[in-house]
Design brief:
The complex is a heterodimer. Chain A is built from 14 helices and 29 strands. Helices cover 19% and strands 23% of the residues of chain A. In chain A, strand 14 and strand 15 form a beta hairpin. Chain A is globular. In chain A, strands 5, 6, 7, 8, 9, 10, 23, 24, 25, 28 and 29 form an 11-stranded mixed sheet that branches. In chain A, strands 16-17-18-13-20-11-22 form a 7-stranded antiparallel sheet, with helices on one face. Chain A has a 5-stranded antiparallel sheet with strand order 15-14-19-12-21, with no helix packed on it. In chain A, helix 7 crosses helix 8, helix 9 packs parallel to helix 12 and helix 10 packs parallel to helix 11. Chain B is of the alpha+beta class. Helices cover 51% and strands 8% of the residues of chain B. In chain B, strands 1-2-3-4-5 form a 5-stranded mixed sheet, with helices on one face. In chain B, a hairpin with a 6-residue loop joins strand 1 and strand 2. Classes of the chains: A alpha+beta, B alpha+beta.
Amino acid sequence: MTDANTSGSGMTEAVELENYLGPYENWNFGIGNPYTFPAYHTDKLKYLTALAEHPKPVKPGLLENIAEHAGRGTWIPTLWGTKDDVALRFWPLVVENPSDEGISLDSLSLNLTAPTQTDEVGKARFRMAFPVEEKAMNRLQNRVPGEPDWSPDPEVPTGASQPKAINVLGVIDDGIPFAHGNFRAADGKRTRLEFCWLQSAENRSGRPSGVLFGREFTRDAIEGLIRNYGDDEDALYAAAGAAEPQFGSSAAINRLVTHGAHIMDVAAGHDPNKSEAPPEETRLVAVQLPNTYPWDTSSFGKSSYLLAAVHYILERAERIAAGYGVEDIRVTINCSYGFSGGRHDGESELEAAINEVVGERRNLGRPTAIVLPSGNTFQDRLHGEISAKDLEDGSFSFKWVTQPNDRTSNYLEMWFPAGFDPQSCSIGLKSPLGMTETSMDLTPDGSHTTGDPRRFQAVRLGGPTGGKAIGLISLDNHRGTGRWRVLLALAPTEPDDENLPAAPGGVWTVTLTRGKAAPSDHGVINLWVQRDVDLEAFRKGNRQSYLRDKKYRIADDSGGPAQEDIGGSHVRRFGSMNGMATGSVALVVSGCRPSAETGWDADKPIASNYSSAGKVSPDTSVGSVDCTAISDRSNIVPGVVAAGTRSGSYASLQGTSVAAPFVARRLSEAFATCSSVDVKQAESENYLPILKKVELVGQSDENRARLGKFLVI
Amino acid sequence: MAYFGGLGGLGGLGGLGGLGGLGGLGGLGGLGGLNASGLGGLLGAGAGGALDPLTVQGLQTSAQAIAHVAGDAATHPSRELEFSSTDNLDRWSDWVRASLYLSDFFSEIVWEAPKDTKEVTISYRSRSTGDAHPFFRIARPDGDLFDKQLEFVRAYMDQRPERTAEITSQLGFPTPYFAMILGLVPARNGKTLELITLTQVLAAHVAMIVKHHLAIRRPDRIGTTILPMIPTPGHGSFPSAHATEAFAVTRMLEGLIDASGTHYPDGEKRKKLLRKQAERIAVSRTVAGVHYPVDSWAGALLGKTVGEIVLKKCGVDTELRGLKYEARADSDFMVSHYQSSKWGEHGVSELPQLSVDVSEQFTWLWTNAVNEFDL
């Protein structure tokens, strides 16, 4: 993209989009595009995932009847509910970009609208997301994927000979070692993993495929690989096509340790050296997210892949149910991921989409659990609150620090409380050293006649009228639901392409001015900085931006990291919840360690230093923790031990990511034994009542916010 | 002092350097870093070396003070050592044995590298018959093959953090990584460790001959983003000496496991571990950014033939079939493909079988090594 259209026409096209694209799309496919990951601005990008939100539920079968338009394809990955004819508002999609000139905002608009010109589909709101690599895409597939070639394992006892309830445990993660010995049955040859979908593996043509992109391995296929290559797992994953790079990043499975191997072992692993037999009644389904996943640790880009993963697990669970003759099969899904931004009221696109599909399945009488971690950002200064009192004088200024040598964009979200219309407010953004200052009235731009009310303002090095764009201020009425959001996006402080202008690193000053017409009695305005960390060895050059305030106390009086918000700062630890874990159907798990002071009492766990929490007050306006599970062995021995990628290897991993799958494991065990009545009664509390747990009585409000009411053991 | 302490080895190599013709061993890929070598470790003791000045002075003053009690300078009839006998080998310093093994081996190795075919052929020439037969032939690939191979090198880069300990401790011979699998300790397995080090030294020398003629530039010369995590060695890339050494040792140790009878109840599993370890050692050099996967292929094949020559010189009845390698641009190196049924698709073809004369010295070392497994 040339500088001419980053500074001029690109913005005009953005405001003329007929179909609404959010502020993240406006940055990543508009003026911020040159700063995004290389795959976003190559000319070869052909397939993009998207999340469609329809005004009312639509049966996905509709898309099968729409002819391709102007050579632009649209596909739906595996969806749950088509057999039961369930209509859904949210669909994951893949759209084609036939242009040889890469992706721009107007080509996106065409890609989305041209092939979906029916009223029902065309009026959708879209979230654009990560691309699908051409070699992973099954271009020739029908719009809805075919059937997997699968049959149940005849050696698993069913019916009267099975004392337990056959249930499904799904894991969504990266680097899934699907042939690992810990996921096998007692004989060491059969696997308990019924289906594994590698979302970004090469879709080798000529093989039967039940997935739109990537590759699916059924239990038979995995057992075949184990038979042929079981004595060399490096050869196994290479032969399976799981070890190849995607979009230039090496496959995670080639490493000794992956997040996915560890998490899946905590959730479903069984050491073959143990004397008791593994729980064959719990059938496993795994989805490996694409390698593109670590490209962006903000919320952008993940939604469609994650939603597709949830649908896939649920769809395959119904096949497992039919295969083993189980009615209303119980499903537990663990997803140890998240983001720090988002509206935190359960209504972000992804949360609303998961709420919908899980809710619909529960409505059919089929127990469905989603287990999520509370997040690891408690000490990261990514969250703040602006109260009505802070705005007494008409405005409130705060500091947002970006770091030097940061090769990725930075994002700060400001969320107004429900019912607060910021029309008479304005936002100002002043760069370090006062090099540039930009302000924007928080009123929708009247030139947008369709889509959600919104306004965009580029941040330019030379001030609002000239110079190169290095950021974007945006306002939107999120999903048209009356939750207004301001998003500040800043370019990297050290762009990969040194010819691009860099956003200055250092202390940015953000000023929110409350106009006289605005309400003066309102709930807090929440700030969340998006997570921006360099995951493992992906070498993307992320550096975390954060909120700075003199009153924020990093350490307590003993010199250790403070565990409470003690200094009266607007920057807060409480309220740092994973933005993906505030939905109504999620069972949210924080991380803890045993307390040395109390003699390792099981009922006195200590919240792990990093473990995120909701607010201290009993209100759950930004989400809350349901329960806690071990994520550190002690205050000096971090993490818990679980499997590495190769059979027999082990590693230690730390974070709420490892606490959630432990709860998922316990829930699958409860699902195997509890009566239908007990399960049904526990549903409204996301099955917390049937878990084996210790009630944490007499704890402080702070501990309750961090640990929830129970320790799961 | 660690079991596999290395500085002694350096001292020993200094001794070898003194041979003149063998000077420069210190610069061999394997010999520089030295974390373990049966020979090297022993060489420190065996080579003696100059004492410190104070002790030298002390020896002289004490000699003068005590010599008078031995009386006159008359000689006594002494026992003579046997002529040209392997019985004497254990009496010599370790570095002397190293020198003898090396001279023996290379007195039977010849090579040619004609400029028109750009192929290097290494042959075994029997001292008894004078007949020479090729055991390894390798074609020089075009430069663009290595350009394509860079993609593999880049794909391996993200494993650098998790392999750092292995990569930096394998700058020298990775003997502890094999010793781990067989449970070798210097106190009990001195001759086995000597055999391992000998095999590595021979493999390294043969690899240098091939590298010199093929003269292939390292990945960091043609790819700007490779940025190796260890210094790029001062010799050609193709074939990899680490792969040659590791697979020569593996082949030799496979023979030793067979010869050790029932010492290991699980010999076949140990062989698989050795092969897998050799693969990992070779691939780690790609992770580090100093080798292409086809370097590992070339080295692994060359190493196999060297290991088999060593076995045959030791008197072991094993097949030695020559190998020819024509590298393929799309070859990644994996030990699962390193077998005759699969390596054809990677450009490997077979040459005729050849025989090798049994060496007294090698057989002596082999017998002593095998005897270490009698418990």
